[in-house]
Write a structure and sequence with these properties.
Mean pLDDT: 94
Largest sheet: 2 strands, parallel
Helix content: 40-55%
Strand content: 5-15%
Distance between the termini: 21 Å
Protein name: Glycoside hydrolase
Oligomer: single chain
CATH class: Alpha Beta
Number of helices: 9
Number of strands: 4
Radius of gyration: 17 Å
CATH topology: Collagenase (Catalytic Domain)
Organism: Rhizobium freirei PRF 81
Number of domains: 1
Structural class: mainly alpha
């Protein structure tokens, strides 16, 4: 992912970035570093509009373990996690069709960019607000925060995202991503490798999209 940006790679190494992979029968709070995680409060900015709207009938009734188990099969941050069934492309499993670890690790990359290239991050923030104004990613997770905008854009860059469909529009490949959101695409061209392909990714241009 970072063969074009040694400075970002070195910043991650210096900060102690690590990756952990959950077994198929494990969940987020089985990871020792994440076992004490609490569920988010109703006003947590990470929640989507639907999650905030339905909080009393959903998250409020869950334990912390139940919340994180249903929340995701991987988390971003300095210690990034993913799930073995997703990396192996096991049919019928959650998130089949797109690489979740690419999404989660890109959060770590974006945090490193805040240190090594804050001007680029500022341009991503502008691109995010422009995209929201234009409704480019309406009703998608990509619209939620600038961090998710970057992470989902990363998956489109590497041809490992599930398709975004809105009306007659479909975005699934890096070429379609470039045509739909050229502002973010051109910024990412300053960070990521230009072949748009992570060799070990089983979902690269996968038919499940």
């Amino acid at each position: 992912m970072l063969s074009e940006r040694r400075d970002v790679r070195d910043a991650l190494i210096w900060a102690g970035a690590r990756v952990g992979i959950m077994a198929i029968d494990e969940t987020t709070t089985d990871i020792p570093e994440q076992r004490d995680w609490k569920k988010p409060a109703p006003d947590d900015p990470r929640l989507t509009p639907d999650e905030r709207r339905n909080y009393a009938n959903t998250i409020d009734k869950m334990t912390a373990r139940e919340y994180w188990a249903q929340r995701a099969r991987g988390m971003g941050g300095l210690y990034t996690t993913g799930a073995v069934e997703n990396l192996m492309g096991v049919p019928g499993t959650r998130y089949y069709g797109g690489n979740i670890l690419v999404h989660e690790f890109s959060h770590n990359i974006f945090n490193a960019l805040r240190t090594v290239d804050p001007d680029l991050v500022a341009r991503v923030e502008k691109a995010y607000f422009h995209a929201r104004e234009k409704g480019l990613w309406a009703r998608s997770y990509m619209e939620n925060t600038v961090d998710e905008y970057w992470a989902e854009g990363t998956r489109f860059w590497f041809n490992t995202n599930t398709a975004y469909s809105h009306g007659a529009l479909t975005v699934a490949t890096s070429d379609e991503f470039e045509a739909h959101d050229p502002e973010l695409y051109n910024i990412m061209a300053e960070v990521y490798r230009h072949d748009h392909h992570i060799l070990a990714d089983v979902f690269y241009r996968h038919s499940a999209k």
